[in-house]
Design a protein that fits this description.
Elements: H1 2-16, E1 20-23, H2 26-33, E2 42-46, E3 50-55, H3 59-65, E4 70-73, H4 77-85, E5 90-93, H5 99-108, E6 114-116, H6 119-124, H7 129-150, H8 159-172, E7 183-186, E8 206-212, E9 215-216, E10 219-220, E11 223-229, H9 234-253, H10 260-273, E12 285-287, E13 294-298, E14 311-314, E15 317-320, E16 324-327, E17 330-334, E18 339-341
Parallel strand pairs: 1-5, 3-4, 5-6
Antiparallel strand pairs: 1-2, 2-3, 7-8, 8-11, 9-10, 12-13, 14-17, 15-16, 17-18
The structure holds zinc ion (ZN) (2 copies).
Length: about 350
Amino acid sequence: MLAPTLTRVREALAESGAEALLVTYPANVRYLSGFRAPDDGRVFVTHEDAVLITDGRYIAQAAQESQLPVDIFEGSWVEHLAAKLGGRTLAFEAEGITYALFEALREKLGPPPRPTEGLVAELRLTKTPAEVDLLRQAAQVTDDAFTHILGFIEPGRTETEVALELERFMRAAGTEGAGFDIIVASGARSAMPHGTASNKRIGAGELVTLDFGAKVEGYHADMTRTVAVGTLSDAHAQLYAAVLRAQEAALGALAPGKKGREVDATARDSLSRDGLGERFSHGLGHGVGLEIHEGPRLSKTSEQTLEPGMSVTIEPGAYIPGDAGVRIEDLAIITETGFERLSQSPKDLITL
Ligand code: ZN
Ligand code: ZN
């Protein structure tokens, strides 16, 4: 996997006109090197060479994890980099450095460093079969955790208790645990798309939205299910049915060659037909990989064209402030002929 990736990085480097590339954005450092402490590492690529630069704390770990030769520095890594560079022109990742680091590079390096944007992120858009396999494993544990939690949720439990039990299950299953802050939003809180678990107790007759995912070797799963605890009002049952229709309509439109905004419009139109267009207040979905949110974007304005190997979530929602909300989210991989749905959990309304 690594050799072809480095070839593509070097092609992009040549286009930028610089002679070396400094990769500092953590997910990109991990992608190119395999190093699991990417906040403390940088990848330095020239046309002849590619190394992981890190410090003495990571001698053993980097030797074990890095697919690139490891270069350990002492003192200042910027000075270490300046010595390696020897006056050549450096390209850096605009999304991966602070202004303070930019100033330090400008001061120490000689020729002014040049910004690049999205150079490695572009390569990460399309997943290799090995990456898809990790996403599939993460999605499988996420499905298992959902099945498990159905037997745990009951009136009187707090949202936090539910989140902890999801986390415990996913860790006990051998994953790195929850890939992001688990959302458990019940009753009126379900109207908050990003309502992370609180100490609110779940009540009878409420909708509960669970948005969570396991992480396997750095790769995230992302799934949302909304369940009913006790009998729902007709209005809430209709809200659920409308979001499910929109979610299935969007999956029906998911295929290579489609633009992000086209798939988004399918869900949005479906919700509008149910009078809920204004209640769908976010984009339809996003790519998932080493980051929980990455390209491609599925939104009202996304011109990105879907290609085989891309991962996407399909997650329409409808939120009525002060009352209730529903979101249903699947993780899928675009294939040559359509898509593979990695999230397998049932979507018909489950009443606990
Ligand atoms: Zn999610
Ligand atoms: Zn998501």
